[in-house]
Write a structure and sequence with these properties.
- The structure holds 2 protein chains of 2 kinds.
- Chain A is of the alpha/beta class.
- Chain A folds into 3 domains: about 130 residues, Nucleotidyltransferase, domain 5 (2-Layer Sandwich), CATH 3.30.420; about 110 residues, no CATH class; about 190 residues, Rossmann fold (3-Layer(aba) Sandwich).
- Helix content of chain A is about 25%, strand content about 30%.
- The two termini of chain A are about 40 Å apart.
- By secondary structure, chain B is an alpha/beta fold.
- Chain B has one domain.
- Chain B has 9 helices and 11 strands.
- In chain B, strands 2-3-4-1-5-6-9 form a 7-stranded mixed beta sheet, sandwiched between helices. In chain B, strands 7-8 form a two-stranded antiparallel ribbon.
- The radius of gyration of chain B is 19 Å and the shape is globular.
- Chain B starts with 11 loop residues before the first strand and ends in a 6-residue tail after the last helix.
Chain lengths: ~475, ~325
Amino acid sequence: MGTRYASALGRELAREIAALGAGEVLTIAEAGSAGIVIWDVHRDQNGTLQSQVWPIVRWSELADRGAASDVELRRVIPVGPAARLLFVRGSLEDPCDARAFSRLCYVYPQAPVFHDATPLDEVLRAVIADDTLTQWYELVVLRRTRSGRLVLRGCQLFPPSAQRGDRRTVRIRCEPSDAGGTVFAVIAAEPVRHFRLVSVESASVPPGSYDLTAELIRPGLVRFRGLPTELSADQRTWSELVSAIPARFDLPQPAHLICAVEVSGTADWVEERLSRIRQLIELAAAPELSVSVISYGSHSFARTEPEEPATMLTWESTPDAALAAVEELGSRGPAPTGYPRAAQIECVLAAVGRRLTRHPGRPVLVTAGSRPAFPHRTDPVSEILPCPARHDWRRELRRLREYPGIAFGAIHDSDPADQIWESLGREAIGHAYAMDIPRFAADLGLFSHAAQTVPFPLLEKTGS
Amino acid sequence: MPPSQERPDYGIAMWGAPSSGKTTFLSALSIALTRRGKDWKVIGADKAATERLVNLTTLLTRNHAFPLATQGIEGFRWLLVGQVPRSTGKRFRKERYEETVTIGLDLVDASGELAGPVGSAISKREELIDSLARSRGIVFIFDPIREFEVGDTFDHTFAVLNELAQQMVASPEFSGGWLPHYVAVCIAKFDELRVFRTAEKMHLLMADPADRLGLPRVADEDARELFARLCEVSGGGTADLVLNTLEQHFHPGRIKYFVTSAIGFFVDPRKGVYDPDDIQNLLPSEKEPGSPRIRGNVYPINVVEPLLWLTRQLMGEPGE
């Protein structure tokens, strides 16, 4: 570490500071023509370097009958023989001052002396800036046990020897918080699991999953990115925060969210549907949630227009993969309107019925669109042409309803009075332009609608 | 016998309410004859008529579009060329043979507005009455869908028939209080679901065993019954008067009813047969909601038959 510094003083300071243990103090006496300036450098309980500079002591204050007094020198620099002490000699033009400094070196013979033209504070600042962590830095998170109990624990961010600029990203989930917001607390942890707070910040973060990136600005300062709101210092005491943790936190059951989106229509409508689906996935995102995304449009009956079937973009994937699929759909723009009076909902239902298994969770089918399904045969009332594959949406829905716990939600942007939309919105129905997504998700069992607040983020498993 | 280029004494006129499908009916004629086989064909009597015939036909077959409604009166000088069975000799030594005949189809397609109650286009309207008076065969198009939705067929029928009767009252042919015409009453748009379902509920649907596609039909003998039934559910509540008005002015023996469709039912080209679960050949337009297009191939139903019946009557044949 010390080889980075050009001067002998820099190298020695780096060596001394790196070796500085808990409770130890490095004292630096900087002697100049004006007098002596004493610097004390130590590590606080978190291992963070702290430096203190004392008021200058003029040479005249150390003199006793014209010469420097040993008593006064020991009073100004009250360290024992084993103390970490070093002297920095500046310009001493007055012979009396030079003699006084010589006397000082005599009193503390163990202290090395350095001659350096660079001001000591600059050298010291550079060395302190390069200091590394001496303890683990962890983010305070909660872990939910199988029984629903919440356990406070640390999520390791930076190990000892981590340097400024180091980064670590963790996947967390924020649940609704009280007025104080969700707390992002960094602790310095020792091997025996004693910890001390490094920083406590908070913000009102909307519920959902986030990739939180922690950056070590310097020992003692960690900055977080990846949240939709800025963090600010939290004034609550630690005991207040800990006592706000509920004993239990009931999460929705594992679910398989299947989102079917009609991608034909105006660009505004399609974007609105995708936006609602995006919000729903983000809100419902949980380790136990798998998500499928299906796009659909209309059947083509004109010979010049090829049939575009309903497309399964993801199946039982992670919320992240599903969000990427939704994003990709949005970038495509709307599909051609095709036959204007119906859309391929019946084919979507048939495809879901074919793929759906009892694993991995309770199915929740959310359909976002405006047009009704094609009938399986010519409908004398609506006069809508039949589905070319002759899928019968009523039969397909009956089949799907046999899955235990299945829920149906509809995001409609036209007239939801149509029979199929009533069926598709059996548990929850909303208009794309005026939706209460949390309520919609709660009605589908994807989100806890009860007023449960959690003060700390929950750690999510990654790679699932 | 070479095709006659002369204007026949009596032409066939078309008549019906606006948007009842008169021009579409004519557009489907050539297709209907082609699908029928080699016995009859339609050709233009002159260059303009041929051009119009080709344009109307390709509009349906290639463009899958319907012709625009006629403005004013449009004449179609077309010729129907076909084989007619003939016989010579005495009773026990009769010889039968087929004769090629050419029948002038001097069709007059008048816009529906001209057939309405007396309005502003008096000269054009007089032209319609004149053309009907000159003709001895009338194709009367009854559009049940328009009747459901607008219910103005009686208005159009009653006014025109009274003016026609007034014009012909001095004619020696106006005997017994009957107008001298043969009238083929075409109940159009059989392919429309509401018409089809009405016929289905009345158990009037049948299939022609000779039709390899198995397309449904309503027998001519049942057509009047369907017409009467459709009149009962008219939007204007006066459609039942249409039937009586027609039969008051024309001799019932000179009226024949046909259930027709210019475009027919949808036949999936992959399957090649009619599917009762998927019958609609109309496709709503994505860009123009009020202008439907034709979904598949055109299989006209009873488009040729009314004209052949009329021509046979006009030729003095005993009929079918």
